[in-house]
Design a protein that fits this description.
heterodimer; A: 346 residues; Rossmann fold; 2 domains; 9-stranded mixed beta sheet; two-stranded antiparallel sheet; B: Rossmann fold; disordered C terminus
Chain lengths: 346, 283
C-alpha cells in the first residue's frame, strides 16, 4: 500500500515520500517523535499520521487483497512490531513525546514529584497500558506492581482500565465483530488480574522482593513492566548508618538495572522529592541523595506550573532536556487540557 | 516461603462510613481500610468531632450500617473529649469497645504502637470485636517541637508512618491521623505546592497543613477541613443558621479534586446538599 492512499494533507504526503516513507508499512515502525523530526512537523501531526496509517493498514488487511494471507505476517511487520514493543505509552502524547515515545523497555526510569502530582496515577496507568493487546498497538503484556506505600487503589485501577479499553476501541475504530472477538480480554477485571501486586511493608521486604524478581521474571516472561511505588518510602526512616543505606541502595539499583536488561522489561521507580530552599525560592530534587541519582537511566521530575502538571526530563543519556504538560483526569493520565477549553468548561 | 503476588481484584474494597451519607458519597464510600487518611485543619475546624463520629460509626452494629468493630483512639492533646463522644452517641453504639490511650512523645507513641501489634495479633482470630480503626489525634502535637535536627525529625516521621501503614495493612485497619495547619506568609519563601489547590484557607486566613513536605509523603490521602470567615457564609438548615464549613480533597489516589460543604450540629457532622461532589476541574 502506498502513502498516496492515506487520507492526510497532501503537504504531509509529499514530505513523507521525500523522506523515504513510501509505503504504509514503512511508517508503522517509526516513533511519532522521530517522524516529527524527520518531516519537520509538530509532534501532534506526526501522531495523527501514524494513527491514520494504522487505521488504514488495518482496514486493508481485513477486507482487501491480503485476505488469502490473513494471519500471516511479513518480516517487515514483525520487525516493526518488535520496535513498537519497546515502548509503553503514558496516555499523554505530549508526555510520550519528551520520553521519546513512551517508557522504554530494558531501561530504568525514575519519576518523582510532590504528593498529589500523580505518581501513583502514572504507575497505575502504565500497569494498564502495558496490557493493550499487540493487535491494538500495545504490548499485550503483564505488569508487576510493588506497592511500598499502600496507595494502590483497585477501584482507581478499574476506572483507568475501563477508560483505556473504551479509548482503544474508539481511537482505532473497530467493528462490532472485532469487539466481540476480544470481549473476554478487554474487560477491566481482566486488566486488573494482570497486574501482579506485591504489597511490602519494610525495606527488608522490598530488597527481598527485588531479589526474588530474578526468578519470578524467569517464570513470567509475559511481564513487561515493573513498577515500584515508591522506591524511597522505607529508605527515609532511621538508618543507623548512612553508609549502610548507600550500600543497600547501590545494590538495589544494580539489581534493577540487571533485571531491566536481562528480561527487556521497563522498570519504573516512583520517588519522592525534597525541596532545597535558597534565597526565597526552592528547587525540587529527587530524594535518596547524590549516589542514588546515578542509578537510573532516565530521571523525570513532575511538578506544578501554575495550575498545570508538567514533566521534565532531568537526566537521560539520549533524550534532550525538555518538558511537557500533562493532566490527571477521571480516565487517567492524558494530555493537558488547553487553557481556553478549561475556562469554557467551568 | 515463596512470595506470591496478589490479584488486585481480590484486594479488600470495604470502606468505613463517616456516619453521614453525604460525606460517604463524597469520599467514594468512606474511609478506606489498609490506608492512612489525614484530616488537616485549624483548631475548631471539626477534625476531632469527625473522628469521634467515625469511631462511633465503626462501633455501631452492622444492622445500623456500622461494623460492630472496636477502635483505638490515641490522644496526644488531652483531655479526651468524652462529653462530646457521649452527646454524639446514640444507643446503637456501645462505648465499651472504644479504647482511649494518650501519648505525649514520639517515643511513647512507638512503644504504644508496638503493644498494639501484640494486642491485634492476639485478638485476630478470636470472635471478639476486632479493632478496625486507629485514630491518632493529633500527629502534629507529637512532632511540632522545633527539632533542630530536621533530618532526624523527618526520619522519625517516616518511621511512624511506616509503622501505621504496616498495621493498617496487616490487620486491615482504617488509620486516621489529624494534623494542624500553619499560616502561610507571602514573603516568597513559600514551599512547593502540594495537592490540588494553589491555596488553602480557613477562617479567612491562608494556611497549609503542618509538618511540611516530608510528612505529606507519609499519608495516603489528605483531606482539608476549613471554616468560612466569621462574617462569611452560613447555611440555613431547618430555620437554624450555621457556619458553613468545607471538606476538600487535597490529594487521594482514588478521588478527584473536589469539595463538600458541611455543618456541625449537636447531633454530629453532616455534609450539605445532594451535589456531594463538585468537581472544579473537568474529570
Amino acid at each position: 500500500m502506498e502513502v498516496s492512499v492515506l487520507p492526510i494533507a497532501s503537504a504531509h504526503k509529499e514530505k513523507l515520500i521525500s523522506a523515504g516513507y513510501t509505503t504504509l508499512l514503512s511508517i508503522i515502525g517509526v516513533s511519532a517523535s522521530r517522524l516529527a523530526q524527520e518531516l519537520i512537523i509538530p509532534h501532534r501531526e506526526a501522531v495523527e499520521i501514524i494513527k491514520v496509517t494504522l487505521k488504514c493498514s488495518r482496514a486493508v488487511g481485513l477486507e482487501g487483497t491480503h485476505a488469502v494471507l490473513k494471519g500471516s505476517r511479513t518480516a517487515w511487520e514483525m520487525l516493526s512490531d518488535e520496535q513498537n514493543l519497546k515502548l509503553i505509552r503514558t496516555g499523554s502524547e505530549d508526555f510520550d513525546g519528551i520520553l521519546g515515545g513512551g517508557i522504554h523497555c530494558g531501561q530504568v526510569t525514575e519519576m518523582g514529584g510532590v504528593p498529589g502530582i500523580g505518581k501513583t496515577q502514572l504507575g497505575i496507568q502504565l500497569a494498564v497500558n502495558v496490557q493493550i493487546p499487540v493487535s491494538y498497538g500495545g504490548l499485550g503484556a503483564k505488569a508487576i506492581y510493588i506497592d511500598t506505600e499502600g496507595s494502590f487503589m483497585p477501584e482507581r485501577a478499574y476506572q483507568i482500565a475501563q477508560a483505556c479499553i473504551m479509548d482503544t476501541w474508539e481511537n482505532l475504530g473497530f467493528s462490532r465483530k472485532e469487539i466481540e472477538d476480544c470481549q473476554e480480554k478487554m474487560q477491566p477485571d481482566h486488566f486488573l488480574a494482570n497486574i501482579l501486586y506485591f504489597r511490602i511493608c519494610s525495606y527488608t521486604e522490598q530488597i527481598a522482593v527485588i531479589n526474588y524478581l530474578d526468578k519470578f521474571l524467569e517464570e513470567h516472561k509475559d511481564v513487561k513492566i515493573v513498577i515500584i511505588d515508591s522506591i524511597s518510602f522505607h529508605f527515609r526512616q532511621d538508618f543507623k548508618e548512612m553508609v549502610q543505606r548507600t550500600i543497600v541502595l547501590n545494590e538495589m539499583s544494580r539489581q534493577l538495572m540487571k533485571l531491566a536488561e536481562r528480561f527487556a522489561v521497563a522498570v519504573l521507580l516512583l520517588n519522592h522529592v525534597t525541596a532545597k530552599h535558597t534565597e526565597g525560592s526552592f528547587q525540587l530534587t529527587l530524594a535518596l541523595g547524590d549516589t542514588w541519582s546515578h542509578s537510573c537511566t532516565n530521571r523525570v521530575i513532575l511538578y506544578w506550573d501554575g495550575n498545570d502538571r508538567h514533566a521534565r526530563i532531568e537526566k537521560s543519556p539520549y533524550l534532550p532536556s525538555a518538558s511537557a504538560p500533562f493532566s490527571v483526569t477521571g480516565k487517567g493520565i492524558r494530555n493537558a487540557i488547553a487553557h481556553c477549553k478549561r475556562l469554557r468548561m467551568m | 516461603m515463596p512470595m506470591m503476588p496478589e490479584n488486585p481484584v481480590h484486594l479488600p474494597v470495604e470502606k468505613l462510613s463517616l456516619g453521614c451519607p453525604v460525606l460517604d458519597r463524597f469520599l467514594g464510600g468512606g474511609i478506606p481500610f489498609g490506608f492512612v487518611t489525614e484530616l488537616a485543619g485549624e483548631a475548631s475546624a471539626g477534625k476531632t468531632q469527625l473522628c469521634l463520629q467515625i469511631v462511633l460509626s465503626a462501633a455501631a452494629p452492622r444492622s445500623s450500617g456500622g461494623l460492630s468493630a472496636a477502635s483505638l483512639f490515641i490522644s496526644t492533646e488531652p483531655p479526651f473529649p468524652l462529653r462530646r463522644l457521649l452527646s454524639l452517641s446514640s444507643d446503637a453504639a456501645p462505648l465499651d469497645h472504644i479504647f482511649v490511650r494518650s501519648a505525649f512523645s514520639s517515643k511513647e507513641l512507638f512503644d504504644l504502637l508496638n503493644h498494639v501489634d501484640l494486642l491485634l495479633s492476639l485478638v485476630r482470630h478470636s470472635s471478639d470485636r476486632r479493632i478496625r480503626l486507629l485514630v491518632l489525634d493529633s500527629a502534629a502535637a507529637l512532632f511540632h517541637t522545633d527539632a533542630e535536627d530536621a533530618v532526624h525529625r523527618s526520619s522519625e516521621l517516616f518511621s511512624v508512618a511506616a509503622k501505621l501503614k504496616e498495621q493498617a495493612r496487616r490487620f486491615n485497619l482504617a488509620v486516621i491521623v489529624t494534623n494542624h495547619v500553619v499560616d502561610v506568609v507571602d514573603d516568597g519563601s513559600k514551599g512547593p505546592r502540594i495537592g490540588n489547590y494553589m491555596n488553602l484557607s480557613s477562617s479567612g486566613r491562608k494556611v497549609c497543613p503542618a509538618m511540611g513536605l516530608a510528612w505529606a509523603n507519609c499519608v495516603n490521602m489528605r483531606l482539608f477541613l476549613s471554616r468560612s470567615a466569621a462574617e462569611g457564609n452560613v447555611v440555613d438548615i431547618d430555620g437554624c443558621t450555621m457556619l458553613e464549613r468545607k471538606l476538600q480533597v487535597v490529594f487521594a489516589p482514588h478521588l478527584p479534586e473536589g469539595s463538600c460543604k458541611f455543618v456541625i450540629q449537636r447531633e454530629g457532622v453532616f455534609g450539605v446538599g445532594n451535589q456531594a461532589l463538585i468537581p472544579t476541574s473537568p474529570q
